[in-house]
Amino acid sequence: MPKSPTTTKKTTTRKKSTTKKNLVIVESPSKAKTIEKYLGSRYKVMASLGHIRDLPKSTMGIDVENNYEPHYISIRGKGEIIKELRKEAKKAAHVYLAADPDREGEAIAWHLSYLLGLDPKDKNRVVFNEITKDAVKNAFKTPRAIDMNLVDAQQARRVLDRLVGYSISPLLWAKVKKGLSAGRVQSIALNLIIKRENEIKAFIPEEYWTLDAQFKKDKSSFEASFYGLDGKKSELKNNDEVQAVLAKLDKKQPFIVAEVEKKERKRQPALPFTTSTMQQVANNVLKFKTQKTMMIAQQLYEGISIGRGGAVGLITYMRTDSTRISDVAKHEAAEYIHDTYGEQYAAVKPRKGKISEGAQDAHEAIRPSSVLRTPESLEKYLTKDQLKLYSLIWSRFVASQMTPAVIDTMRVDLEQNGVTYRANGSKLKFDGFTKVYAEAKRKDNILPELAQGDEVMMDKNQANQHFTLPPARYTEATLIKTLEEKGVGRPSTYAPTLNTIQKRYYVKLVTRKFEPTELGEIVNSMIEECFPDILNINFTAQLEDRLDEIEEGKQEWVRLIDEFYQPFAKDVQLAESKLEKVKIKDEPAGIDCEICGAPMVIKMGKYGKFYACSRFPDCRNTKAITKEIGVTCPVCHKGQIIERKTKKNRLFYGCENYPECEFISWDKPVGRDCPKCGHYLVYKKVKKGLQVKCPNDDYQEAIQGE
Asked: What is the mean pLDDT of residues 334-356?
């Protein structure tokens, strides 16, 4: 019999795709995750985790004899990342460098191109001002070569700061103590704080008086204050002048309305945020430290997961000195304002800001990537602090595209026997941009209808003595504003500068205001004596402008550095021979060491002053300097409650018997127990001052005099 034919089963094997992927390198994993979602499967996105090459920490790393050639090395701990990036770059169809769109980002791209063997002239650099689908995809359609002017501008600043820091810092180590540092911008910031402190110490208050009165017309009452005599503005410098004015007044006689002036005033919206204005407003309104503001802004820029939509960049790039807005963003904002608030709220021609001197105007202002993503719609996806900052950015931008607020103002002069009192009133006629930007809202001060010749009676008249106040200490917001106005530093430098002068304990923040320390004053006096150019604001501002010109291709960076360094190096040599070693003397503490019985002294440390045994190093006993508040510990009932501070200088309260007793509290204990539950009471900050509250229930009581 013939054999039946055998059937063979065909097996098909799917060929692996040989299509190479494109490699995209960014700085952070969160940015990588957001971008990869937009680009799709043909792209692999990896993060370099910031810079991968830098100058060495152990040496200056600048060859001053060879055109200030920087000696870059791979950053310690980045070996595995570099290895992985090289591996992926070799098998990629194309490598794109998508670091942030600024000098620092351009430098990161340049260092990556060096380590990965890429040609900087190839079109592999991709930049976008916002991390949204359209912005990212459009950017990849037009890659460009690495901008060497931007790289040189970053490199010049890095080299200049290294030359200053690594020349002056060793001098401070030798003459004062180890661990100190100096820098171009930080030295001026410290100097400004110390000059302000000296102004406060030298300030002599001057006496002046005010007369504040209450007037009545029919059933309406209003307030007015002394303005002057015989129609001319006058100041009351002492009580004799006050009494002379009061002697002219007759309580039984009416005041005559001498003049009424009514005006309509328009209040323009603020421009959208730049980096420094965002830092200032966040500090004033949200009480955010500058470093915190920038950290949260970075998170909002790089991308936040918003449910099914996945991660999306919520704001445009947060390092900018421009108030410019793209036409697309303006159009979207106008439509949103029309639809949400009405046609009367949308500005036909939104206010344009002037480009400040020294501003690069390279990027747009800080704004939401889409105005349609309202703070309310994102509330469930953002942390509390992210929502606060996003709401501020969103409302500031929307308000900038709205019509002005219209205010009716009224000024009334009241006269009797040659004495003039003046009342100023205002009433919001049209809310305009303040409908969105709550920070700009003000209370009305409505005066009754008054006409020239009307009679009003004075009901009360209060004389108050005052004294002129010294200039206020700098807050983070006012210091940034001053540095920007003087042209010192750039938006990206302010946060690290303020962080450094606190970390070095040159200054401390007390109730959100900068106070210099003894160490800060010593360092400042040495720099003042030996390096006057470093503290010369005009010199530094001009240097900043010239550094910016490198970015524009108008300056050659090696020549600029050489012109600065040659005279600076001579100053360093002179300082080394001129300066004597400064010994920070120990102060007697007035107490004895509980270990060996020797007298204790007060020493200066990294975080301020502390108690130490005078027999150091034979006896290493140290204690924190504490302040008792006169309250016995509510937990152990033995120790006293003392003020303590965290390493970040935040005040808290704890038992002196720590660690045996672990009582701590951010709020100051009162020294009494709650009458409702028996828990200890604390002083709690409220809008109007302080209030006694129970942390355990709703018991509270007002403080006398508050």
From this structure: 83
